Amino acid sequence: MKNIIIKTADLDEMETRHRAAFVNSLGGFKSAVLIGTKNKEGLENLAIFNSLIHIGANPALCAFIVRPDVSPRHTLENIIETGYYTINHLNTETYQKAHQTSARYPRETSEFEATGLATAYLEDFFAPFVENSHVKFGCEFVERINIELNGTSLIIGKIVYISVPENCVEDDSFVDIEKAGTVTVSGLDSYHTTKRLARMEYAKPDKLPLTK
Amino acid sequence: MKNIIIKTADLDEMETRHRAAFVNSLGGFKSAVLIGTKNKEGLENLAIFNSLIHIGANPALCAFIVRPDVSPRHTLENIIETGYYTINHLNTETYQKAHQTSARYPRETSEFEATGLATAYLEDFFAPFVENSHVKFGCEFVERINIELNGTSLIIGKIVYISVPENCVEDDSFVDIEKAGTVTVSGLDSYHTTKRLARMEYAKPDKLPLTK
Q: What CATH number should be reported for the domain holding residue A134?
């Protein structure tokens, strides 16, 4: 393949949407999830995010980035107001509706209703889950870290309630999310299924790379 | 699919490696990248990370999580010492060697040499790129944000030098990383190729979800 080189000055000259598409592509394949929330008046909200990251396993922590200037700010308001939210994996059946939650619906609109994604309330967990997400979990809000550079925030939560398909949990507790139908996203709008190449053994300096 | 429910008390009781495998799986498909650095004495370092996130397009910012208590701390030391690092996508040819960089090699070992991944120095960019990565970019260190909760840090960088295959850049500047052979990771050790379902149109409240 012949490569082209793009530098800061080239990025500066790009049209805004082109730059957004280009720079978002560089992040690789990302986790696309729906975050479900509810405010104290009971109004539900659902928004797609593609910046979920693992922070730690003990305690179980994850985080995502919010831009306070765009639509999913309702998600942030609800999380801070109530302390709870759900994270729901996209799959081949739900990804188009999930993408549609990124439209700028008015405050009083539930994206569950607007897009036709059904809610699920599990036991006494406060925030709504997505019924048709196979892998989903509930989080307690822990910390908001503001990134002054560009006005975004990292929202950290503790994973406290998890629902996963029983037949996707392997002997070592790895969850086969490909088997569960989870999809991945690249750039801002490209959705993909996956095909496993291999699971790799825990790497040690004196061994060659080994597949499980 | 029949789902099982796991709560905080269940996580607490899991064996450490099982909990790590389980909780890491919940993050969905993630971006797996090799981060290349060099210290002031010229010693090169290469380490795999699966927590890359997009922070913003203007300026072009990305971030990743480091755990100071584990092997890739050499990456962090070099970034802080020199201010530069490279981020290199994994592909089907390189992912096994890339995984092998997670082994705890001694400080004086270059993971480029130990795993057989060749370096590439592009123009006058300080840090080494991975020759066989098709999508790669150079970053300037911008900020370290410590997450007190579990001792991890978010490392934010500005993307200043990008090399991508010319035939993978589409008309709207989206980069087709699937065409470039980029792979994705789930959990700690499962690598996957992808197959595109669709690119979606920019979502608007008065339209149904539309594919491009």
A: 2.30.110.10
Residue whose pair of structure tokens reads 């993630």 in the numeric block? B30
With an 8 Å Cβ cutoff, are A180 and B105 in contact?
no
Give the closest-approach CA distance of A154 to chain B in angstroms.
9
DSSP for A172-190, please give it. TS-B-TTTTTB-EEETTTE
* Number of domains, chain B: 1
Could you say which of B167, B190, B199 has the minimum Cβ distance to residue A1? B167
A32-53, pLDDT tens digit by residue?
A: 999 999 999 999 999 999 999 9
Pairing of strands B3-7, A152-165: antiparallel
Task: Answer whether A33 sits within 8 Å of B30, measured CB to CB.
Answer: no
* pLDDT tens column, B118-128: 999 999 999 99
Q: How far does the CA of residue A30 sit from the closest CA of chain B (Å)?
A: 5
Q: B37 is written with which tokens?
A: 């650095």
ipTM, two decimals, is 0.96
| pLDDT given for residue A78 in this prediction | 96
Q: Give the total residue count for chain A.
A: 212
Rounded to whole angstroms, the Cα distance separating B127 from B139 reads 9
The stretches of A116-156 forming alpha helices (DSSP H) are: none
Work out how many CB contacts closer than 8 A connect A with B. 390
The low-confidence residues of chain B, meaning pLDDT below 70, are 69-72
C-alpha to C-alpha distance for B189 and B172, rounded to whole angstroms: 33
Q: Domain span at residue A74?
A: 30-188
